[in-house]
Amino acid sequence: MNTLSNEWEEKAEQAQISLFENYWNNETSMFNNAYECNNCNGQFHYWWLAHALDTLIDAYERTNNVVYLDRSKALYESILKRNNGVITNHFYDDMLWMSLALLRLYEHTNDSKYEAAVFTLWDDIKTGWSDQFGGGIAWNKSQLDYKNTPSNAPAVILASRLYQKYGNPDDLDWAMKIYNWQKSTLVNPETGFVWDGINRTGNGNIDKNWEFTYNQGVYIGAGVELYRATNSKEYLDDAIQTSETGIQRLVANKTTNILKDEGGGDGGLFKGIFVRYLGGLVKENPNQKDIAQFLINNAKSAWGNKLAEDKILFGSSWERTPNLNLDLSINLSGVMLMEQAAIMEKLLADPVSISLLNEQLNGYIATDDIKGPLVPILLNTVKQAEHHLEKDRVEQAIKHLQNFQKHLHNNAHQNYLSDDAKNQLTITTDLLLEELSK
């Protein structure tokens, strides 16, 4: 494994700064639609801005710098204003992306208006379900007989996260119902490769020739979140199969192993979605070190082909220096890639120790990401594990670390820790258990 480094943390921060400097519009408190924006803001890209929110929250989770939260809050208010004072939208997939971002924003602010917005969106999204073609959520409100992966796999992610947070069994029922439809209708049963949609042109056909990174990413995310919600390994196995097939089929060529160019516009976001949920898979299953290295290799290529040393902007191809007039979507994907590389860097780093776990735990307590009665429980459990390791009683230490994880995932404790704290501490504990079991 690599030695401990923060190379990609620094690069992620530089990319975030460049995104803000080159796209943020102080007059609108939103990101411009393109770099070197010249009358480029005529169209309101609701779903691009949802991903912009997600990307700002990535930066906050990495740095704990409230500047990123402040920008997220300002961006949300501007989105609301531009959207005529409502948070809902004509497209079900777009509302899903906004829901996922706002759920994260609520997690870090505890501001009930974001929570209320999530439930408003979720209630609207569920109206898109019908039994035509066996089920599924429609793509948009004027074409209810067209069902696609972008409107279904992210719904599984959202429903699973809502269940994990609130424990409402209806949300888990929705997650499983949508996942089962998605898997039986729009996933190749032999390879796990995910197709785009059914009945787009009204002929009942499946778009098997539309091969997008987007679709693989959201299905991987759906499998990971359902695994977290149910602890049923079949969902994780599905995610692993799709990740392996997706990487194999969607790289530009087998020599470089860098993801293909999917253009600008909406396509500019596709790779960002894929790398986000590939990263989520590795966080859940740190044994997927090949995927972690794949993400870092893509980040190296994109970084090496940035626009300039003093202007860190990425193109739709991560293997060529970009031209100008770059859509926001393209650079959101580039920044997402840098943020995932920063996470992967930590996962691949050596060493993992009880001291690192202690350091992370105390850091999350200091920022109130862990609070209330859970604080002494976790501190004592780690202290017990540390004590046994000092005495070379490895088996006893392992039992305490396993108990530590049970506390992290106990539904009764979910109001006392953030998703980021739970996920990162789970990753570190997994790696530590793996080391101790050798």
UniProtKB/TrEMBL annotation:
Source organism: Lederbergia citrisecunda
GO MF annotations in UniProt: hydrolase activity
Keyword tags: Hydrolase
Gene Ontology biological process: carbohydrate metabolic process
Descriptive protein name: Glycoside hydrolase family 88 protein
Pfam families documented for this protein: FIMAH, Glyco_hydro_76
Positions of the FIMAH domain: 356-434
Cited Gene3D superfamilies: 1.50.10.20
SUPFAM superfamilies xref list: Six-hairpin glycosidases (SSF48208)
